[in-house]
Write the structure tokens for this entry.
Amino acid sequence: MNLKQCLGAICLVAVTSVCAAKDDLVLGMQLEPPNLDPTGGAAAAIDEVVYANIFEGLTRFASDGSVVPALAESWEISPDGTVYTFSLQQNVKFHDGSDFDASDVKFSLDRARAETSTNAQKQLFTGIDNVEAADDGSVIVTLSQPNGALLFNLAWGDAVILSPDTFDKAKTAPVGTGPFKFSRWVQGDRIEIERNPDYWGEPAKLARATFKFISEPTAAFAALMAGDVDAFPVYPAPENLPQFDADPRFNVVVGSTEGETILSTNNKQPPLDNKLVRQAIAHAIDRQALVDGAMFGYGTPIGTHFAPHHPAYVDLTGNASYDPEKAKALLKEAGYESGFTTTLKLPPPSYARRGGEIIASQLRAVGINTEISNLEWAQWLEQVFRGKDYGLTIVSHTEPMDIGIYAKPDYYFQYDNPDFQQLMTDLEAVAGPEARAELLQKAQQIIAEDYVNGFLFQLAKTGVANKDIVGLWENSPTQANDLTAVYWK
């Protein structure tokens, strides 16, 4: 071989090596999931890894928020709206090689709605009276009353289908039907997935993907700049975005999320059980200052628990306008002219930690002192979400259109309003979009006027990615990093 041929061979090897490297992806996440079972955990980070990638449901959310078929190829609805007959996709296998059929759907839905269910969104399934596997390829779901949101509910990560043979492995070694298979989990560092060669649908373009957990914003910045991470779909330090935007190697995408960021309030803990006190807190908060200070301008102030981009949204920010003097007057009326002290327990995300300092200062200005505790997610889930041992906390609820959580008296902010609960029951029976919008608007007004929580801002999706990556979601209609259509140019 002469020198020219030798150089050509070296170049060919180099080009082949570069091309081979472009079928994998390293994706940054700030939070590591506590486990990988979306049917048994409330943490958004679970779905951010497994939704649509490893696990699938009968339906799923598309990138634009619409509900589309997944493991259900199609469905028919009875004239009275109480019976749904799902025709399932054919030739579907779980990642362990076992066949998927109607019995798996029955098992999963019955498990989710059982009395002993630990599903974080169990209310999604409460209207289901019976699930029948008519044959291997079809499932009949019978409802106690019509529910216009059933297909939407079944698209949640909490409604994915697991096999009765492997469901108990889902927390650490999930076995699903999706286009990617679980490969390994290096605790504290990363989760690796690989393309499922036997996928029933459109195969994934990526051969491998790694979810890399980087909790510190400075480390996230360094990892992107060094090329150790290819994309950070929810970048944790918005103050760096102008620098990435000016760098030709990256694309910066600012989209919307379903994340209502709230000053969640323990409605059963005195003095927060007093509506006047909660109203005072609402008027003590300068939401725009919070967005500017904690999120560097990325985010939309809200006055209720509902996404501003939703057609049924009502702008109720005026109901909780920034008015410190009014806040002081309300505290005096409530019998707390000298103020009081409560806890403010903050999970790890920067919106909570940064936002907590700002809110603590704003509350202090009207006489409310807060004892701040910075918690890791496991501590937050144990103390706040499950234990209800808190006064105030800051968290983004990233589930899609989840106003129904206010109808759960045992939910962690412990709001118990029978009128609201009845409204949610009425909503389930309504299918028409106009009638549903009217009820949803009424629901928004009830919780705003009850000042259940301090409604702060809608979380923006601030993402950074290598400019040659195609297919990452711009918006987040659900809490997911859907890699099913992602590829390199």
